[in-house]
Amino acid sequence: MAAKRFLAYLYSDYGMLVVLVLLSVIISLLTIKEQFPEGGRAGDQLGKRIANAQGAEARVLAITRPTQGDQAFVERLKERVVGGGGAWLGHVQGDPQDARRELERLNTAGSKITTMATVQATSGWKVLETVGTRFPALGNPEILSPQGYRWPTFLKKDNLINVANQIAVIAIIAIGMTMVIITAGIDLSVGSLVALSAVVVAWCITHWFGGLAASGIGLLAAVLMAIGLCAGIGLFTGIMITRFSIPPFIVTLAMMLIASGVAFMITDGDSIFDTIPDAFKWLGVGADLGVPNAVVLMVVLYAVAHVVMEHTPFGRHIYAVGGNPEAARLSGVPVKRVLVLVYTICGALAGLGGIIVASQLKSGDPNFGQLYELMVIAAVVVGGTSLLGGEGKILGTLIGAFIIAVIQNGMNLKGLESYPQKVMLGMVILGAVLLDQLKKKATARSVTSSS
Protein backbone atom coordinates (compact mmCIF):
# COMPACT_ATOMS: atom_id res chain seq x y z
CA MET A 1 0.00 0.00 0.00
CA ALA A 2 2.83 2.39 0.87
CA ALA A 3 4.42 1.77 -2.52
CA LYS A 4 1.12 2.40 -4.30
CA ARG A 5 0.58 5.64 -2.41
CA PHE A 6 4.10 6.75 -3.28
CA LEU A 7 3.56 5.98 -6.97
CA ALA A 8 0.22 7.79 -6.89
CA TYR A 9 1.96 10.80 -5.33
CA LEU A 10 4.63 10.79 -8.02
CA TYR A 11 2.02 10.56 -10.77
CA SER A 12 -0.17 13.32 -9.37
CA ASP A 13 2.60 15.81 -8.53
CA TYR A 14 5.49 14.75 -10.77
CA GLY A 15 3.83 12.84 -13.60
CA MET A 16 6.15 14.43 -16.14
CA LEU A 17 9.03 12.60 -14.48
CA VAL A 18 7.76 9.48 -16.24
CA VAL A 19 7.82 11.39 -19.53
CA LEU A 20 11.41 12.49 -18.86
CA VAL A 21 12.50 8.92 -18.15
CA LEU A 22 10.77 7.59 -21.27
CA LEU A 23 12.29 10.32 -23.43
CA SER A 24 15.73 9.52 -22.04
CA VAL A 25 15.27 5.82 -22.77
CA ILE A 26 14.07 6.46 -26.34
CA ILE A 27 16.89 8.91 -27.13
CA SER A 28 19.41 6.54 -25.57
CA LEU A 29 18.25 3.72 -27.84
CA LEU A 30 18.34 5.99 -30.89
CA THR A 31 21.88 7.16 -30.19
CA ILE A 32 23.57 3.80 -29.56
CA LYS A 33 26.78 3.68 -31.55
CA GLU A 34 30.36 2.56 -31.21
CA GLN A 35 32.13 4.70 -28.63
CA PHE A 36 35.80 4.95 -27.84
CA PRO A 37 37.33 5.66 -24.43
CA GLU A 38 39.19 8.93 -24.07
CA GLY A 39 41.83 10.50 -21.87
CA GLY A 40 43.51 8.56 -19.10
CA ARG A 41 41.03 5.71 -19.33
CA ALA A 42 41.92 5.14 -23.00
CA GLY A 43 45.65 5.26 -22.26
CA ASP A 44 45.28 2.78 -19.43
CA GLN A 45 43.32 0.34 -21.62
CA LEU A 46 45.72 0.52 -24.57
CA GLY A 47 48.80 0.42 -22.34
CA LYS A 48 47.59 -2.81 -20.73
CA ARG A 49 47.02 -4.38 -24.15
CA ILE A 50 50.52 -3.49 -25.33
CA ALA A 51 52.19 -4.55 -22.09
CA ASN A 52 50.36 -7.90 -22.01
CA ALA A 53 50.99 -8.68 -25.69
CA GLN A 54 54.57 -7.43 -26.15
CA GLY A 55 56.05 -6.95 -22.69
CA ALA A 56 59.75 -5.98 -22.80
CA GLU A 57 59.79 -6.20 -26.61
CA ALA A 58 57.46 -3.21 -26.96
CA ARG A 59 58.90 -0.11 -28.62
CA VAL A 60 56.10 2.44 -28.61
CA LEU A 61 55.60 5.80 -30.32
CA ALA A 62 52.45 7.72 -29.31
CA ILE A 63 50.71 9.90 -31.90
CA THR A 64 47.94 12.20 -30.66
CA ARG A 65 46.38 15.63 -31.02
CA PRO A 66 47.44 18.63 -28.89
CA THR A 67 44.55 18.38 -26.42
CA GLN A 68 44.35 18.04 -22.66
CA GLY A 69 42.51 14.73 -22.94
CA ASP A 70 45.14 13.27 -25.27
CA GLN A 71 47.88 14.40 -22.88
CA ALA A 72 46.22 12.35 -20.12
CA PHE A 73 46.06 9.45 -22.60
CA VAL A 74 49.82 9.65 -23.22
CA GLU A 75 50.69 9.84 -19.53
CA ARG A 76 48.75 6.69 -18.63
CA LEU A 77 49.94 4.88 -21.77
CA LYS A 78 53.59 5.62 -20.99
CA GLU A 79 53.17 4.49 -17.41
CA ARG A 80 51.74 1.13 -18.51
CA VAL A 81 54.30 0.53 -21.29
CA VAL A 82 57.33 1.38 -19.15
CA GLY A 83 55.88 -0.54 -16.23
CA GLY A 84 55.65 -3.62 -18.46
CA GLY A 85 59.35 -3.33 -19.38
CA GLY A 86 58.79 -1.83 -22.85
CA ALA A 87 60.65 1.09 -24.45
CA TRP A 88 59.02 4.49 -24.79
CA LEU A 89 60.22 6.14 -28.00
CA GLY A 90 58.40 9.42 -27.61
CA HIS A 91 55.22 11.33 -28.30
CA VAL A 92 54.11 13.15 -31.44
CA GLN A 93 51.57 15.82 -30.56
CA GLY A 94 50.16 17.68 -33.55
CA ASP A 95 48.99 17.02 -37.12
CA PRO A 96 49.95 14.47 -39.83
CA GLN A 97 52.89 16.65 -40.92
CA ASP A 98 54.30 16.54 -37.40
CA ALA A 99 53.93 12.76 -37.39
CA ARG A 100 55.70 12.46 -40.75
CA ARG A 101 58.65 14.56 -39.59
CA GLU A 102 59.10 12.47 -36.43
CA LEU A 103 58.89 9.22 -38.41
CA GLU A 104 61.52 10.53 -40.82
CA ARG A 105 63.81 11.38 -37.90
CA LEU A 106 63.40 7.94 -36.32
CA ASN A 107 63.90 6.25 -39.70
CA THR A 108 67.16 8.15 -40.21
CA ALA A 109 68.29 7.15 -36.73
CA GLY A 110 67.46 3.50 -37.49
CA SER A 111 65.01 3.17 -34.59
CA LYS A 112 62.70 0.17 -34.64
CA ILE A 113 59.04 0.67 -33.75
CA THR A 114 56.74 -2.18 -32.79
CA THR A 115 53.66 -0.10 -32.05
CA MET A 116 52.28 3.29 -33.02
CA ALA A 117 49.79 4.07 -30.26
CA THR A 118 47.05 6.43 -31.43
CA VAL A 119 43.74 7.83 -30.28
CA GLN A 120 40.70 7.23 -32.46
CA ALA A 121 41.06 10.63 -34.17
CA THR A 122 44.64 9.98 -35.32
CA SER A 123 44.39 6.27 -36.08
CA GLY A 124 43.23 6.91 -39.67
CA TRP A 125 45.99 9.27 -40.74
CA LYS A 126 47.31 8.21 -44.16
CA VAL A 127 50.92 8.78 -43.21
CA LEU A 128 50.67 5.99 -40.65
CA GLU A 129 49.28 3.46 -43.11
CA THR A 130 52.40 3.59 -45.34
CA VAL A 131 55.08 3.54 -42.67
CA GLY A 132 56.37 0.08 -43.66
CA THR A 133 57.11 1.15 -47.25
CA ARG A 134 58.11 4.80 -46.78
CA PHE A 135 60.25 4.27 -43.68
CA PRO A 136 61.71 0.74 -43.97
CA ALA A 137 64.21 1.22 -41.11
CA LEU A 138 61.30 1.41 -38.66
CA GLY A 139 60.21 -2.16 -39.39
CA ASN A 140 56.54 -2.92 -39.77
CA PRO A 141 54.95 -1.24 -36.73
CA GLU A 142 51.37 -2.02 -35.73
CA ILE A 143 48.85 0.81 -35.44
CA LEU A 144 46.87 0.37 -32.22
CA SER A 145 44.12 2.53 -30.74
CA PRO A 146 41.71 2.02 -27.82
CA GLN A 147 39.06 -0.62 -28.41
CA GLY A 148 35.53 0.60 -28.92
CA TYR A 149 32.28 -0.40 -27.23
CA ARG A 150 28.56 0.02 -27.90
CA TRP A 151 26.97 2.75 -25.80
CA PRO A 152 24.40 5.57 -26.27
CA THR A 153 25.99 8.90 -27.08
CA PHE A 154 23.22 10.51 -25.03
CA LEU A 155 24.37 8.74 -21.85
CA LYS A 156 28.01 9.74 -22.12
CA LYS A 157 29.12 11.70 -19.08
CA ASP A 158 30.19 14.75 -21.07
CA ASN A 159 26.88 14.87 -22.90
CA LEU A 160 24.79 14.61 -19.72
CA ILE A 161 26.81 17.40 -18.12
CA ASN A 162 26.35 19.43 -21.30
CA VAL A 163 22.57 18.92 -21.13
CA ALA A 164 22.48 20.20 -17.55
CA ASN A 165 24.77 23.12 -18.34
CA GLN A 166 22.77 24.20 -21.39
CA ILE A 167 19.50 24.32 -19.46
CA ALA A 168 20.91 25.85 -16.25
CA VAL A 169 20.06 29.47 -17.09
CA ILE A 170 16.53 28.65 -18.26
CA ALA A 171 15.95 26.47 -15.20
CA ILE A 172 17.18 29.14 -12.78
CA ILE A 173 14.90 31.81 -14.26
CA ALA A 174 12.06 29.29 -14.27
CA ILE A 175 12.13 29.21 -10.45
CA GLY A 176 10.86 32.77 -10.34
CA MET A 177 8.50 32.19 -13.24
CA THR A 178 6.97 29.21 -11.41
CA MET A 179 6.15 31.44 -8.45
CA VAL A 180 4.68 34.06 -10.76
CA ILE A 181 2.51 31.59 -12.69
CA ILE A 182 1.30 29.89 -9.49
CA THR A 183 -0.11 33.32 -8.51
CA ALA A 184 -1.94 33.26 -11.89
CA GLY A 185 0.43 35.84 -13.34
CA ILE A 186 3.00 35.92 -16.13
CA ASP A 187 6.32 37.68 -16.72
CA LEU A 188 7.28 38.32 -20.33
CA SER A 189 10.23 40.54 -19.44
CA VAL A 190 12.71 37.87 -18.27
CA GLY A 191 14.45 37.49 -21.64
CA SER A 192 15.08 41.22 -21.91
CA LEU A 193 16.25 41.30 -18.28
CA VAL A 194 18.85 38.66 -19.17
CA ALA A 195 20.21 40.98 -21.87
CA LEU A 196 20.03 44.04 -19.62
CA SER A 197 21.83 42.27 -16.77
CA ALA A 198 24.60 41.02 -19.06
CA VAL A 199 25.08 44.48 -20.58
CA VAL A 200 25.04 46.26 -17.22
CA VAL A 201 27.56 43.93 -15.58
CA ALA A 202 29.90 44.22 -18.58
CA TRP A 203 29.51 48.01 -18.69
CA CYS A 204 30.14 48.39 -14.95
CA ILE A 205 33.24 46.18 -15.10
CA THR A 206 34.56 48.19 -18.06
CA HIS A 207 33.82 51.73 -16.86
CA TRP A 208 33.74 51.54 -13.06
CA PHE A 209 35.88 48.63 -11.88
CA GLY A 210 39.00 48.63 -14.03
CA GLY A 211 38.10 46.46 -17.02
CA LEU A 212 40.72 43.76 -17.52
CA ALA A 213 42.35 44.78 -14.23
CA ALA A 214 39.12 44.45 -12.23
CA SER A 215 39.53 42.84 -8.81
CA GLY A 216 37.34 40.11 -7.37
CA ILE A 217 35.53 42.66 -5.21
CA GLY A 218 34.95 44.83 -8.27
CA LEU A 219 33.49 41.90 -10.22
CA LEU A 220 31.22 41.01 -7.30
CA ALA A 221 30.05 44.61 -7.02
CA ALA A 222 29.22 44.73 -10.73
CA VAL A 223 27.32 41.45 -10.46
CA LEU A 224 25.29 42.67 -7.47
CA MET A 225 24.49 45.95 -9.24
CA ALA A 226 23.17 44.14 -12.31
CA ILE A 227 21.08 41.70 -10.27
CA GLY A 228 19.84 44.54 -8.07
CA LEU A 229 18.73 46.53 -11.12
CA CYS A 230 16.73 43.57 -12.44
CA ALA A 231 15.25 42.93 -8.99
CA GLY A 232 14.25 46.62 -8.90
CA ILE A 233 12.53 46.25 -12.26
CA GLY A 234 10.68 43.23 -10.90
CA LEU A 235 9.69 45.26 -7.85
CA PHE A 236 8.37 48.05 -10.08
CA THR A 237 6.43 45.48 -12.11
CA GLY A 238 4.83 44.08 -8.97
CA ILE A 239 3.86 47.54 -7.76
CA MET A 240 2.27 48.43 -11.09
CA ILE A 241 0.26 45.20 -11.01
CA THR A 242 -0.91 45.49 -7.42
CA ARG A 243 -1.27 49.25 -7.03
CA PHE A 244 -2.94 50.05 -10.34
CA SER A 245 -4.50 46.64 -11.17
CA ILE A 246 -2.85 46.52 -14.59
CA PRO A 247 -2.86 42.97 -16.02
CA PRO A 248 0.55 41.25 -15.62
CA PHE A 249 0.66 40.51 -19.34
CA ILE A 250 0.53 44.22 -20.21
CA VAL A 251 2.97 45.37 -17.52
CA THR A 252 5.59 42.74 -18.28
CA LEU A 253 5.20 43.23 -22.03
CA ALA A 254 5.96 46.91 -21.50
CA MET A 255 8.94 46.10 -19.27
CA MET A 256 10.22 43.64 -21.87
CA LEU A 257 10.36 46.44 -24.45
CA ILE A 258 11.82 48.96 -22.00
CA ALA A 259 14.56 46.64 -20.72
CA SER A 260 15.53 45.60 -24.23
CA GLY A 261 15.63 49.21 -25.41
CA VAL A 262 17.78 50.29 -22.45
CA ALA A 263 20.23 47.43 -23.10
CA PHE A 264 20.66 48.58 -26.69
CA MET A 265 20.99 52.21 -25.63
CA ILE A 266 23.76 51.42 -23.14
CA THR A 267 25.89 49.69 -25.76
CA ASP A 268 24.71 51.51 -28.91
CA GLY A 269 23.78 48.08 -30.21
CA ASP A 270 27.30 46.70 -29.87
CA SER A 271 28.76 43.95 -27.70
CA ILE A 272 31.10 44.58 -24.76
CA PHE A 273 33.64 41.79 -24.84
CA ASP A 274 37.29 42.89 -24.94
CA THR A 275 37.41 44.52 -21.49
CA ILE A 276 36.18 41.58 -19.40
CA PRO A 277 38.81 39.75 -17.30
CA ASP A 278 39.12 35.96 -17.43
CA ALA A 279 38.24 35.74 -13.74
CA PHE A 280 34.66 36.71 -14.66
CA LYS A 281 34.28 33.35 -16.42
CA TRP A 282 34.36 31.47 -13.10
CA LEU A 283 30.59 31.20 -12.67
CA GLY A 284 29.70 30.33 -16.25
CA VAL A 285 32.69 28.21 -17.30
CA GLY A 286 34.34 27.01 -14.08
CA ALA A 287 33.82 23.49 -12.73
CA ASP A 288 35.26 23.39 -9.22
CA LEU A 289 33.34 20.22 -8.24
CA GLY A 290 33.75 18.38 -11.53
CA VAL A 291 30.50 19.77 -12.97
CA PRO A 292 29.91 23.34 -14.21
CA ASN A 293 29.48 25.87 -11.41
CA ALA A 294 26.27 27.06 -13.06
CA VAL A 295 24.80 23.57 -12.64
CA VAL A 296 25.83 23.48 -8.98
CA LEU A 297 24.18 26.87 -8.48
CA MET A 298 21.04 25.62 -10.20
CA VAL A 299 20.80 22.60 -7.87
CA VAL A 300 21.32 24.76 -4.77
CA LEU A 301 18.68 27.28 -5.86
CA TYR A 302 16.14 24.54 -6.57
CA ALA A 303 16.76 22.98 -3.17
CA VAL A 304 16.20 26.35 -1.48
CA ALA A 305 13.14 27.15 -3.60
CA HIS A 306 11.62 23.73 -2.88
CA VAL A 307 11.97 24.29 0.86
CA VAL A 308 10.50 27.79 0.58
CA MET A 309 7.50 26.68 -1.47
CA GLU A 310 6.73 23.52 0.50
CA HIS A 311 7.68 24.37 4.08
CA THR A 312 7.35 28.11 4.69
CA PRO A 313 4.40 30.50 5.17
CA PHE A 314 5.55 32.51 2.15
CA GLY A 315 5.26 29.44 -0.08
CA ARG A 316 1.78 28.67 1.24
CA HIS A 317 0.77 32.28 0.66
CA ILE A 318 1.86 32.03 -2.99
CA TYR A 319 -0.42 29.03 -3.52
CA ALA A 320 -3.25 30.73 -1.67
CA VAL A 321 -3.01 33.87 -3.81
CA GLY A 322 -3.04 31.79 -6.99
CA GLY A 323 -5.95 29.63 -5.84
CA ASN A 324 -8.29 32.41 -4.77
CA PRO A 325 -6.86 35.86 -4.06
CA GLU A 326 -10.02 37.16 -2.40
CA ALA A 327 -10.27 34.19 -0.07
CA ALA A 328 -6.56 34.55 0.68
CA ARG A 329 -7.04 38.23 1.55
CA LEU A 330 -9.94 37.45 3.86
CA SER A 331 -7.77 34.81 5.53
CA GLY A 332 -5.12 37.38 6.37
CA VAL A 333 -2.69 36.72 3.53
CA PRO A 334 -0.92 39.95 2.44
CA VAL A 335 -1.83 39.41 -1.21
CA LYS A 336 -0.23 42.57 -2.63
CA ARG A 337 3.00 42.04 -0.71
CA VAL A 338 3.22 38.45 -1.91
CA LEU A 339 2.73 39.49 -5.53
CA VAL A 340 5.36 42.24 -5.30
CA LEU A 341 7.86 39.82 -3.74
CA VAL A 342 7.19 37.16 -6.38
CA TYR A 343 7.85 39.54 -9.28
CA THR A 344 10.92 40.90 -7.50
CA ILE A 345 12.32 37.38 -7.09
CA CYS A 346 11.59 36.62 -10.73
CA GLY A 347 13.42 39.77 -11.83
CA ALA A 348 16.40 38.99 -9.61
CA LEU A 349 16.69 35.44 -10.96
CA ALA A 350 16.47 36.74 -14.53
CA GLY A 351 19.31 39.10 -13.65
CA LEU A 352 21.31 36.18 -12.27
CA GLY A 353 20.63 34.30 -15.50
CA GLY A 354 22.07 37.24 -17.44
CA ILE A 355 25.20 37.15 -15.27
CA ILE A 356 25.70 33.46 -16.06
CA VAL A 357 25.25 34.04 -19.81
CA ALA A 358 27.68 36.95 -19.72
CA SER A 359 30.15 34.81 -17.78
CA GLN A 360 29.85 31.91 -20.21
CA LEU A 361 30.42 34.14 -23.23
CA LYS A 362 32.69 36.64 -21.45
CA SER A 363 30.72 39.51 -22.91
CA GLY A 364 27.62 41.63 -22.61
CA ASP A 365 25.34 41.86 -25.63
CA PRO A 366 21.84 43.38 -25.91
CA ASN A 367 20.83 40.46 -28.12
CA PHE A 368 21.23 37.95 -25.29
CA GLY A 369 18.10 36.32 -23.93
CA GLN A 370 16.03 36.31 -27.10
CA LEU A 371 13.02 33.97 -26.73
CA TYR A 372 14.17 33.02 -23.21
CA GLU A 373 10.77 34.05 -21.85
CA LEU A 374 9.11 31.44 -24.06
CA MET A 375 11.58 28.74 -23.07
CA VAL A 376 11.13 29.56 -19.39
CA ILE A 377 7.34 29.53 -19.60
CA ALA A 378 7.53 26.27 -21.54
CA ALA A 379 9.65 24.68 -18.79
CA VAL A 380 7.17 25.79 -16.14
CA VAL A 381 4.11 24.58 -18.07
CA VAL A 382 5.68 21.29 -19.12
CA GLY A 383 6.63 20.78 -15.48
CA GLY A 384 2.97 20.73 -14.49
CA THR A 385 2.30 24.28 -13.24
CA SER A 386 -1.19 25.41 -14.19
CA LEU A 387 -1.47 28.65 -16.13
CA LEU A 388 -4.68 29.29 -14.19
CA GLY A 389 -2.73 29.55 -10.97
CA GLY A 390 -2.78 27.79 -7.62
CA GLU A 391 -1.02 24.59 -8.77
CA GLY A 392 2.56 23.70 -9.49
CA LYS A 393 5.77 22.33 -8.04
CA ILE A 394 9.27 23.75 -8.11
CA LEU A 395 10.80 20.33 -8.74
CA GLY A 396 8.22 19.80 -11.48
CA THR A 397 9.63 22.88 -13.21
CA LEU A 398 13.13 21.39 -13.02
CA ILE A 399 11.77 18.23 -14.65
CA GLY A 400 10.08 20.33 -17.33
CA ALA A 401 13.32 22.17 -18.04
CA PHE A 402 15.16 18.88 -18.44
CA ILE A 403 12.45 17.52 -20.73
CA ILE A 404 13.04 20.46 -23.05
CA ALA A 405 16.81 20.07 -22.79
CA VAL A 406 16.68 16.33 -23.45
CA ILE A 407 14.47 16.80 -26.52
CA GLN A 408 16.78 19.47 -27.94
CA ASN A 409 19.89 17.43 -27.18
CA GLY A 410 18.41 14.31 -28.74
CA MET A 411 17.51 16.14 -31.93
CA ASN A 412 21.00 17.69 -32.05
CA LEU A 413 22.58 14.26 -31.67
CA LYS A 414 20.45 12.98 -34.55
CA GLY A 415 21.49 15.95 -36.71
CA LEU A 416 18.08 17.63 -36.96
CA GLU A 417 18.02 21.35 -37.79
CA SER A 418 16.53 24.03 -35.56
CA TYR A 419 13.25 24.22 -37.47
CA PRO A 420 11.99 20.73 -36.57
CA GLN A 421 13.13 21.43 -33.01
CA LYS A 422 10.74 24.38 -32.81
CA VAL A 423 7.91 22.20 -34.08
CA MET A 424 8.71 19.51 -31.54
CA LEU A 425 8.95 22.00 -28.67
CA GLY A 426 5.57 23.47 -29.60
CA MET A 427 4.02 19.99 -29.66
CA VAL A 428 5.50 19.21 -26.25
CA ILE A 429 4.06 22.41 -24.75
CA LEU A 430 0.66 21.72 -26.26
CA GLY A 431 0.78 18.11 -25.09
CA ALA A 432 1.74 19.15 -21.55
CA VAL A 433 -1.17 21.59 -21.29
CA LEU A 434 -3.52 18.95 -22.74
CA LEU A 435 -2.39 16.41 -20.15
CA ASP A 436 -2.90 18.99 -17.42
CA GLN A 437 -6.45 19.65 -18.57
CA LEU A 438 -7.26 15.94 -18.85
CA LYS A 439 -5.92 15.35 -15.35
CA LYS A 440 -8.08 18.19 -13.99
CA LYS A 441 -11.18 16.75 -15.65
CA ALA A 442 -10.42 13.28 -14.32
CA THR A 443 -9.94 14.69 -10.82
CA ALA A 444 -13.19 16.63 -11.04
CA ARG A 445 -15.08 13.49 -12.16
CA SER A 446 -13.64 11.43 -9.32
CA VAL A 447 -14.63 14.11 -6.79
CA THR A 448 -18.14 14.31 -8.24
CA SER A 449 -18.62 10.54 -8.21
CA SER A 450 -17.33 10.19 -4.64
CA SER A 451 -19.67 12.88 -3.39
Task: Describe it.
It is a single chain. The protein has a 4-stranded parallel beta sheet with strand order 3-2-4-5, sandwiched between helices. Strands 1-6 form a two-stranded antiparallel sheet. It has helices at residues 2-14, 16-30, 39-54, 68-83, 96-109, 126-129, 131-134, 157-182, 190-207, 216-244, 248-267, 282-285, 293-311, 313-323, 325-330, 335-361, 372-382, 394-413, 418-450; strands at 32-35, 59-64, 87-93, 115-118, 142-144, 149-152. It has 19 helices and 6 strands. The chain has 2 domains: 39-147, 3-Layer(aba) Sandwich (Rossmann fold), CATH 3.40.50.2300; 155-438, ABC transporter involved in vitamin B12 uptake, BtuC (Orthogonal Bundle), CATH 1.10.3470. It has 451 residues and is of the alpha/beta class. The model has no long low-confidence stretch (mean pLDDT 91).
What would CATH call the class of the largest domain? Mainly Alpha
Q: Largest sheet, described in full?
A: 4 strands, parallel
Instruction: Write the element-wise H/E pattern from the N-terminal end onward.
Output: HHEHEHEHEHHEEHHHHHHHHHHHH
Determine the mean pLDDT: 91
Helices, by number, come to: 19
CATH-defined fold name of the largest domain: ABC transporter involved in vitamin B12 uptake, BtuC
Low-confidence stretches: none
| Range of strand content | 5-15%
CATH architecture annotation name of the largest domain: Orthogonal Bundle
Class based on secondary structure composition and strand pairing:
alpha/beta
C-alpha end-to-end distance: 24 Å
Helix content: 55-70%
Radius of gyration: 28 Å
Strand order in space, largest sheet? 3-2-4-5
Q: Report the strand count.
A: 6
